[in-house]
Amino acid sequence: MEALSTLRPAAAALRRNPVLFVVPAVLALLQLPQLVVQTVSPFVGGIVSLLLSGVMLLALPFLQAGLIAMAHEALDGQTRLATLVAAGKEYYIPVFLAFGVLFVCNLVVFGLVFVGVFVAVVVGLAQPGSSTALFLVLGLAGLVLFGLYLLVVFFLQFYVQAIVLDDLGPFAGLKRSASVVRSHLGDTFVYSLVGGGIGALFGLFGAVFSILLTSSVATTPTPTPLADVYGPLADVSLSLPLLVVGFLALVLLTTLFGGFFGTYSVAFYRAIRPTAA
């Protein structure tokens, strides 16, 4: 089972090359300003978040390509930041184009879901008697659409690895990812479960911290619906020292997970890629 056997070489590569944590640390630090600003002003925090999202969209292909190339080197021995810069420059355009294709697909999917919800609300208000059936139909369509979206993500998740490791163009990289996954469905499913499970554990802290942060910066009592969802967390407020500790812990956990998952993904892809790529 390649999904499990590649865990050890990935961990060994990280021990030899702690520099692999640099890229996820940079990504984590890019997220930090919006969280800090949010504690002062949610409105300004929203603006900062929007600006940083634009920066992330432009920087992510460079950092992704660089991290994949560094992990590839680290699995065979040592790597360095020069590899990040070289690979980021060489593969920025193909990774950016492939990322753009997936980004547009995301917009289309969530745009269709939004339109469906809007139509359901409008029709439900105009004709209350037919709203239940319409909600059921649109809900089922939304689930099918979301399932297809997850299926596409599942098959195309190794496009960056394919572009960088196999020196392919954007569309060839997407095609190679789909082909490799199709040939190793069981292994890829287990790999996704392992990565998703570890990611969920790290993400749980981020979700709880986000709830506590929202509660801490609220200037009015928490509305009842929010309290119903968050439960006792909605009434907790964090002191400044706890906020600082929370920010540092969030950065650390994001860095650890990003470094591990980036290296693990490369180790797994190398194990299942065509031998004559």
TrEMBL record:
<keyword id="KW-1133">Transmembrane helix</keyword>
<feature type="domain" description="DUF7847">
    <location>
        <begin position="1"/>
        <end position="271"/>
    </location>
</feature>
<feature type="transmembrane region" description="Helical">
    <location>
        <begin position="48"/>
        <end position="70"/>
    </location>
</feature>
<feature type="transmembrane region" description="Helical">
    <location>
        <begin position="133"/>
        <end position="156"/>
    </location>
</feature>
<dbReference type="Pfam" id="PF25231">
    <property type="entry name" value="DUF7847"/>
</dbReference>
<protein>
    <recommendedName>
        <fullName>DUF7847 domain-containing protein</fullName>
    </recommendedName>
</protein>
<feature type="transmembrane region" description="Helical">
    <location>
        <begin position="91"/>
        <end position="121"/>
    </location>
</feature>
<dbReference type="InterPro" id="IPR057169">
    <property type="entry name" value="DUF7847"/>
</dbReference>
<feature type="transmembrane region" description="Helical">
    <location>
        <begin position="238"/>
        <end position="264"/>
    </location>
</feature>
<keyword id="KW-0472">Membrane</keyword>
<keyword id="KW-0812">Transmembrane</keyword>
<feature type="transmembrane region" description="Helical">
    <location>
        <begin position="189"/>
        <end position="218"/>
    </location>
</feature>
